[in-house]
């Protein structure tokens, strides 16, 4: 057994003409949360389906919890939990019935399956609704039950495929809290997401995926630094003054982008507060009217564009 | 791994039974529908073209066979819904016996069909139908009907795995009617144009209906071989196809 919880070496998968994975490499250390970040169609879900033994790769060596996902699929299934993009629950049955059923299918036996179902309902604050059919659950409750179902046996490795897509902010916060509480227990988590913020909140390391390949990886901080860190956005009253504003603002001019339609200029900053007060003062002195000045983190779009341009 | 095959299949069967307990109305509707058809054809529309003797003796075995054929729909809907909901993905990611999902489906559907047969037979009795072939032939006839249902079940699983989408179920739901009625369930082929009569005679469902009529009526076992051979042939084709299709979910 190696130290890594997940090893992916040259994974390839093709659906008809479409190359979903084009030689993807990935290593995830035990007990860490690893984010896989990328847009729709980048290959994130294909990767999770292969890692959780639902899909056979065309090529590549892929190990999860020390076992080969193709030749030792059963051994892998004993050690993983999966939270797919769509709730994988029996909608007709109640929450408790679902958990009991999955417990029995993990061969816990009737009594332990029942006890485990009660524990998990309690832990995910679902005890009161345990009897209600899942199709009457809210989106957040369904996601929590789904997560509970993937934790029946305290898996060594847990896969979360876009766990908060389609949830409202409250549901999202609930799922994030649940994931954080897991990591203390030593579970390795692989999480796919389209949101930089989500990776930032949860992941120790992030791999950025595009067109079936990893184009960059590192800690969230490293990735953001690589794209120039924080940015300042200035919206002017008059688009005609954008050029003048760029010339006099105390920022690094090589990274400035201008969008005349939105009367917006955006520039990378290093020292946030100094940049903010410097920009406001310079605009005032030059008599250029601004509607809005704001500091912000780079968006996924910017990180992603930056990284894919670098790779190309 | 295989030591859990029985346990897992039982767990999956229990899942279906729990669905029944949650949706009693749906179960009752499913049982009442064939009874409604039986009453409709017995008293409203029918009359039994070209049928000699009491129509009820002809109609009841025909309706039993037709109900078994329509079971295909129920199987297909259930499997399609599971595929659509993603719950099959969770089953497949669990360390459970391969195929327990399909076995559970089969056991539950066969149980439901057995109950359905019981209800229809009871209503038949109430209408004055009297099988006079003896208890052995009676049990044999029910066996043939369930064997036919078993073949329909695997066709249903296969079609669900091929079609995969709830919209396709509708197409099959519509197609099941002409196929069901292109049989001798309700009228004697002798009363039909020659070409139609021939098609109807070859319909596997007609073979089962004929054999079952003979057994209930005490008319011998001449047609039993065809009622065994046809479902067996269908199973020989569709069982491996369905199993292969299920395994191919990982491709």
Automatic annotation (TrEMBL), chain B:
It is found in: Cell membrane; Membrane. The keyword Transmembrane applies. Its main location: membrane. Pfam families: ABC2_membrane. Keywords: Antibiotic resistance, Cell membrane, Membrane, Transmembrane, Transmembrane helix, Transport. It is a multi-pass membrane protein. Residues 25-249 form the ABC transmembrane type-2 domain. Signal peptide: none annotated. The chain crosses the membrane at residues 24-46, 58-79, 100-125, 137-162, 224-243. InterPro entries: ABC2_TM (IPR013525), ABC2_TM_bact-type (IPR047817), ABC_2_transport (IPR000412), Nod_factor_ABC_transporter (IPR051784). Belongs to the ABC-2 integral membrane protein family. This is Transport permease protein. It comes from Streptomyces justiciae.
């Amino acid at each position: 057994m190696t130290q890594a919880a997940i090893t992916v070496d040259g994974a390839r998968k093709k659906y008809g003409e479409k190359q979903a994975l084009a030689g993807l490499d990935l290593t995830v250390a035990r007990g860490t949360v690893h984010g896989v970040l990328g847009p729709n169609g980048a290959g994130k879900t294909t990767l999770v389906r292969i890692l959780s033994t639902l899909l056979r790769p065309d090529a590549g060596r892929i190990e999860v919890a020390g076992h080969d996902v193709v030749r030792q699929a059963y051994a892998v299934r004993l050690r993983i939990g999966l939270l797919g993009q769509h709730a994988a629950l029996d909608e007709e049955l109640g929450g408790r019935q679902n958990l009991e059923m999955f417990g029995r299918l993990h061969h816990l036996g009737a009594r332990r399956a029942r006890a485990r179902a009660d524990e998990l309902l309690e832990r995910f604050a679902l005890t009161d609704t345990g009897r209600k059919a899942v199709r009457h659950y809210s989106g957040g409750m369904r996601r929590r039950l789904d997560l509970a179902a993937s934790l029946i046996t305290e898996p060594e490795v847990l896969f979360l495929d876009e766990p908060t897509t389609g949830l409202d902010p409250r549901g999202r916060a609930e799922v994030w809290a649940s994931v954080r509480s897991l990591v203390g227990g030593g579970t390795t988590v692989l999480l796919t997401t389209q949101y930089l913020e989500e990776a930032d909140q949860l992941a120790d390391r992030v791999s950025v995926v595009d067109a079936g390949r990893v184009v960059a990886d590192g800690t969230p901080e490293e990735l953001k630094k690589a794209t120039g860190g924080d940015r300042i956005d200035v919206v002017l009253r008059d688009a005609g003054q954008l050029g003048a504003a760029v010339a006099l603002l105390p920022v690094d001019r090589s990274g400035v982008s201008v969008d005349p339609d939105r009367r917006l200029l955006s520039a990378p900053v290093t020292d946030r507060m100094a940049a903010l007060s410097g920009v406001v003062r310079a605009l005032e002195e030059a008599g250029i009217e601004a509607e809005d000045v704001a500091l912000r983190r780079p968006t996924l779009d910017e990180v992603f564009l930056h990284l894919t341009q670098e790779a190309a | 791994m295989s030591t859990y095959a029985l346990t897992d299949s039982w767990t999956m069967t229990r899942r279906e039974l729990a669905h029944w307990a949650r949706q009693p109305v749906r179960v009752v509707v499913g049982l009442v529908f064939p009874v409604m058809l039986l009453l409709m054809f017995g008293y409203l529309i029918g009359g039994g073209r070209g049928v000699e003797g009491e129509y009820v003796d002809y109609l009841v075995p025909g309706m039993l066979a037709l109900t078994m054929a329509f079971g295909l729909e129920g199987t297909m809907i259930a499997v399609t819904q599971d595929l659509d909901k993603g719950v099959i993905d969770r089953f497949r990611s669990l360390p459970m016996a391969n195929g327990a999902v399909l076995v559970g489906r089969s056991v539950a559907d066969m149980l439901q069909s057995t109950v359905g047969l019981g209800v229809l037979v009871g209503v038949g009795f109430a209408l004055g139908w009297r099988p006079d072939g003896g208890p052995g032939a009676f049990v044999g006839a029910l066996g043939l009907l369930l064997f036919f249902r078993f073949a329909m079940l695997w066709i249903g699983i296969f079609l669900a795995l091929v079609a995969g989408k709830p919209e396709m179920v509708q197409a099959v739901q519509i197609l099941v009617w002409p196929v069901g009625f292109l049989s001798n369930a309700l009228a004697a082929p002798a009363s039909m144009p020659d070409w139609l009569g021939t098609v109807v005679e070859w319909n596997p469902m007609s073979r089962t209906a004929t054999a079952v009529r003979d057994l209930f009526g005490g008319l011998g076992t001449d047609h039993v071989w065809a009622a065994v051979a046809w479902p067996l042939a269908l199973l020989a084709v569709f069982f491996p196809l369905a199993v292969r299709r299920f395994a191919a979910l990982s491709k």
